[in-house]
Amino acid sequence: MRKLFVQTLFIALLISPPLLYAQNEIYNRLSLEECIKTGLQNNPAILSSQFFVEETQTKIDEAHSGYYPKVNLNSNATTYSNNNGSQRYENYNTGISASYNLFNGYRTKAGYNAAKDNYEANIFQHESIKQDLVLNITYAYYKTLQAERILKSTEEAVKNSQLHLDFANARNIAGMATRSDILKSEVELSNAELEKIKATNSLLAAKGNLNQLMGLPSNNAVEIVDDLSELNENPVQSYDSLFAEAMESRVEVKRFYSLLNAQQNYIQLAKGEYFPSLDANANYNFAGEKISGMQQNWWLGMTLTIPVFKGFSTKARVAGEEIALKGLEKDFEALKQQIGQEIWDAFLAVNESSERVMTTSKGLESARENLSLSEGEYKEGTGSIIQLTDAQTTFVAAEQNYIQAVADYKISLAELRRTTGNL
Questions:
Q1: Cα 290 → chain centroid
Q2: Residue 415: which CATH number?
Q3: For residue 392, which of 203, 289, 315, 402 sits 20 to 30 Å off, Cα-Cα?
Q4: Residues of the chain by 3-state class (helix, strand, coil), percent to 5
Q5: pTM
Q6: CA 295 to chain centre
Q7: Domain total for the chain?
């Protein structure tokens, strides 16, 4: 009779509707693409990088000014006296002067080309910063989804633990369970509530990080679309194919090509100091001792400047620029090695996370079935409360391991795309 009573109570507890909490329905959830778009529009680091690119562009116009003549308006008035101060003289001069460089050892061309190469390098640098931001937002996005799902898991664990406690109380009333069963159920419930508190805080921290990357206040109430279940398991290319793709697509590689070209132009700019400089000059003015008596003057001419000796400064500058080129070449080799290591790590991470998804999926199914059997056995009186709480703990751990594996798989795919320059 007692057994029938306990079974009836257990079934009633299982089918009883859970408490409903009034929540505002959320309509505006941000997708990953929308989060990325928001970040690219609002993130201060991206905006700062864009301004730096625009600043570098002005250097091109500055360097191009060397191709144009220089025109100046000049006006001056002077007064002076002889040694004994008995006579005083005045002089007035006003006019226009112009000069144009005809040849300066190709320094203007080299400076202009270097400015263009640096501008291109900074464009690629800006693109690299953007891709890093996209990766960081993707990481934060899936870590937020992971935190959301883990919070839901802990909430379900609290409900199940409460159900187990209620059932233990019911069995104790019926004389089929001891006080120890109740205490163990209370401990299980307390642990579940503690994990829920931690999960709630982790979710808030994850959302704060995502908001910060999007250029929004950390406490912004952001809600995102859950796409963790969308697992498109496409085969991963071989390491060699991925590395070759990266060498063609990575903006960091393109940036170094621009920097190397710029450095070649800096060498040419330095070598230009060895060559003579030829300028055409013109002047037209009015001059005189009195303003009313100023006379018209003009002249045309050319100036040839031949460097003879500068204390070996030109030689030192050329040597310095050539050494800088060798340093860039070694930095380029280091970048290739770094990219290779990044691809290798990302390649391994994708394979590992993919295997973890399959393994944890099987483990989750086994843990779910084990929990169901343990609940049934405890209901029938053939199982113990320890067996039931262990099954509950195992199920929660298996569920959260699966959630983390899926999130890591999504993140590892994004990291692999970033290492190949296709994010």
A1: 69
A2: 1.20.1600.10
A3: 203
A4: 70, 15, 20
A5: 0.83
A6: 68
A7: 1
